[in-house]
Amino acid sequence: MELEYHPHLVPNIFLFADRRCYPDWKIQKATIDFHDLTFVVDGRAEYYINGKKYAVEAGDLIYVPGGSVREAHTFKDFPMHAYPFNFFWAEPHNEVLLPFGVVTKKAITKEILCYIREFNQVWMSKQPFYMIQARALFELILHRLLSGLHRRSAMPVDLRIKKLTSFISDHYSEAITINDLAERFNLHPVYLGKLFKLNTGSTYKEYLHRIRINNAEMLLSAGDFTVTEAAERCGFSDISYFSKVFKELKGYPPSAAKNANK
């Protein structure tokens, strides 16, 4: 999922409403420069996005990214009740799109609805620091939506690989080869390598490097370890190789992670 590679996204919400539409409610045709994420909880409406018609009803999620031409109307006999969130991503990330279609059917779970109602209370009460709490709740809503999308699209992970990755998390600093793991889990090394790549999208070596480097980065960021100490604690005996792998994965040398804490 492309959004995973944008860990610094910050949503700035400028409009939220408990929108209980009157019978002749409509949105006039216009091009928007913000992201519109609307949760429909009752009634019906029709949206026209870039000239294409979409029918929406209770349970649907509407996503209209910036740059889209948007218009909408509800139905007199079934006026829509919805919760729209209009927001910008903090610069320079506003062009990043959420991985949703214009309409996602049956996207609203009880958990998400509870978060929306809590958001509504926070937004309306405007207590001190309410924007921090509101942003946190909105990010929880996004997390639930994205996690659900990932679960639906991802292949179920083989139980053996779940056990193996759990073992790696506990023993990543040790000198463990794929042959060692194959013997431990009673699998042929070649078969295990293929099974691991199929379930994780990475080779065993790539996965182990990522776990080691992420932990090394945390040690360095804490400021209590030198680069050499962090490398050794995370399973690297060759400091030059550690630095090379670190920079390949993070885009900056380990010394930058160390210095960032000063």
From TrEMBL:
Signal peptide: none annotated. GO terms for molecular function: DNA-binding transcription factor activity; sequence-specific DNA binding. Keywords: DNA-binding, Transcription, Transcription regulation. InterPro entries: Cupin_2, Homeodomain-like_sf, HTH-like, HTH_AraC, HTH_AraC-typ_CS, RmlC-like_jellyroll. The keyword Transcription applies. SMART domains: HTH_ARAC (SM00342). It comes from the Bacteria. Residues 162-260 form the HTH araC/xylS-type domain. It holds the Pfam family Cupin_2. PANTHER family: ARAC-FAMILY TRANSCRIPTIONAL REGULATOR, HTH-TYPE TRANSCRIPTIONAL ACTIVATOR RHAS. This is AraC family transcriptional regulator. It comes from Paenibacillus arenilitoris.
